[in-house]
Amino acid sequence: MEYKPISIATGGQIPGSHLSAIPGKFCENLFSVYGTTEVGLAAKVFLTAETEVGYVGEWIPGYEAKIIGADDNTLGCGEIGEVVLRSPWMLKGYRDSPELTKDSFTEGGWFRTGDIGVLTEDGKLFVKEKAADVIKRGTRKILYSAVEMAISNFPGIKETVVVAVPDVRLLEDVCSCVILEEDANNSEQKLQTMCWDKLGDNIMGDSPTFYLMFKTFPRLHNGKIDRVNIKKESMGMLKL
């Protein structure tokens, strides 16, 4: 006799659209939950082929969410920033850790999730990345994954990694490291043109300021990209 679960829940990461193929095969339905240990389960969404990537779903009654900027100011709809949550029954503070408590909450008792997201006019929250996965170029927040995805779709690109490099004026700047296909003849100027067409410029848009060509990328023992050493090599090549 075969048994099929009624429901499977996933959380902790942004579910990809490929997961929509699971319902009907391994279970009757699949849903993604959003929240933290400190806040609890705040929202959930049943995943289908129509579910937009990053959408956290319907809010559990009693939860509030908003987006804040670098100085903790509340941002408007459509503006990207850090997601903060609040509810009557969430954690009020960490035991014997006043500094951690201070760093984890904003004025008004909002908990910092560490997620980067955006709220739409109809109240939908879309989570983009973790705060650690964002490059802060001046007052602009740039997602590593968005830049990498755009560049990886350009012709002649075999592999790309985006890293943050230090900048005296802007704090951080964006550096694109690429490995070209064998027969590709992409130059730095050509990459810049394609990026500016897709991502905007490197002032008001999300395009990298630096473009570096690699033959291979350093990797960890498990085969994954070693971003730490790629950043070190990039800074050496740029003499930073």
Mean pLDDT: 87
**Proportion of strand residues:** 25-35%
- Unreliable spans are none
- What proportion of the residues is helical, as a percent range? 10-25%
Structural class: alpha+beta
> Any idea what the shape is?
globular
From the coordinates shown, what is the CATH architecture of the largest domain? Roll
Helices and strands, in N-to-C order? EEEEEEHEEEEEHEEHEH
Per CATH, the class of the largest domain reads Mainly Beta
**Cα-atom Rg, whole angstroms?**
21 Å
Total of domains? 2
Describe this structure in words.
This protein is an alpha+beta fold. The protein has 2 domains: 7-133, Luciferase, Domain 3 (Luciferase, domain 3), CATH 2.30.38; 138-237, GMP Synthetase, Chain A, domain 3 (2-Layer Sandwich), CATH 3.30.300.30. Helix content is 16%, strand content 35%. The protein has 4 helices and 14 strands. The chain has helices spanning 98-104, 144-152, 188-199, 227-237, and strands at 7-10, 29-36, 40-46, 58-59, 64-68, 81-86, 105-106, 110-119, 125-130, 134-137, 140-143, 157-167, 171-180, 210-213. The strands form 4 sheets. Strands 5, 6, 7, 8 and 9 form a 5-stranded antiparallel sheet that branches. The protein has a 4-stranded mixed sheet with strand order 1-2-3-4, with no helix packed on it. A hairpin with a 3-residue loop joins β12 (157-167) and β13 (171-180). The longest helix is centred in the last third of the chain and has 12 residues, at 188-199. It is globular and about 55 Å long.
